[in-house]
Amino acid sequence: MAREVSSEEEAGGGDELRRGPWTVEEDLLLVNYIAAHGEGRWNALARCAGLKRTGKSCRLRWLNYLRPDVRRGNMTAEEQLLILELHGRWGNRWSKIAQHLPGRTDNEIKNYWRTRVQKHAKHLNCDVNSQQFKDLMRYLWMPRLLERIHRSSQSQSHDADDADLSVSAATSCITSDLVVDAHHPPLAMADSNDSAAMWQQHQAPQMSVAGAPPPTTTMAQHVVLPTAAASCHQMQDQFVCARAAETTTCCWSESESLPGLAGLYYDDAAAALPEFDVETMAMWGPEDDPWYTQMLGL
DNA sequence: AAACCGGACAACCGCCGAATA
DNA sequence: CTATTCGGCGGTTGTCCGGTT
């Protein structure tokens, strides 16, 4: 947030390096200099631009705030889902996660995680890195986000022309490369190890409906899903199928703390998490309250 | 109206590896 | 080869602001 420079600050500035919030004048200096000369060599840039800031400070200000492609505002459901998903894979690799959310900075994602996700872990009185909390995210919050994405894309799909635009640019860029196959990992993602691991996590529980023949393993109908919404539809459908099946053989989490949880759907998961308070499970705001109420049959 | 509190986010710090002199 | 500089990253702190008491 830029603010006016106080008279004291101007008087006492001298050759001292400035710290604290950036002013409008500093922002203009930095933006204009980068527009004329490009970014990089930040220490020299800071000197040449006449900024009494460290090169590091200039770089951070540019990357996190001034860059024209920085996205601001609330995280979309798609972005939240991706953050949960990618954090589950990579942990606190914020810059790596940010690479998959165009326009979002590592700092913003880190702040989001700390202020939103960790806050809820604290309210639930469980460690954010615990398997219990991870299961909660995976079986309650992520399906919930999927549901919201699905619902919003359904409602927008009535506007046929705008259907694809309903998905944020952020996640559509990322998941456009997801190649979903009923029995094979995604074929095209950033790196093969990650894609295989992510596929395992996205894979639906293997179902074995009583009396039904086991699913064929020769099915190889690759479906290229062009948008995040499409891949979420697939995942959502898999959740629903899993729930519909009378008996399930789970292949998701092998949680020791919640051994029966893997592969369950909302109500099952809620029943398996009796230690959590209903109110504190409401992660996504007041609009989710009715959903939680319904979920728990209250 | 003022004090207090907590959430959100901007900014800084320390460390590390890569690049360069 | 070594020392220094630079850029990137993750953790932490500081600041602002709105809500509550």
UniProtKB/TrEMBL annotation:
Keyword Zinc: no
Residues annotated as domain Myb-like: 14-66, 67-117
All residue ranges annotated as the HTH myb-type domain in the record: 14-66, 67-121
CDD domains: SANT
Keyword check for DNA-binding: yes
Compartments (UniProt record): Nucleus
One GO CC term on file: nucleus
Keyword annotations from UniProtKB, A to Z: DNA-binding, Nucleus, Repeat, Transcription, Transcription regulation
Predominant cellular place of this UniProt entry's protein: nucleus
InterPro entries: EOBI/EOBII-like_plant, Homeodomain-like_sf, Myb_dom, SANT/Myb
GO molecular function: DNA-binding transcription factor activity; sequence-specific DNA binding
Gene3D superfamilies to which the protein is assigned, alphabetical: Homeodomain-like
Protein name: Uncharacterized protein
Organism: Oryza sativa subsp. indica
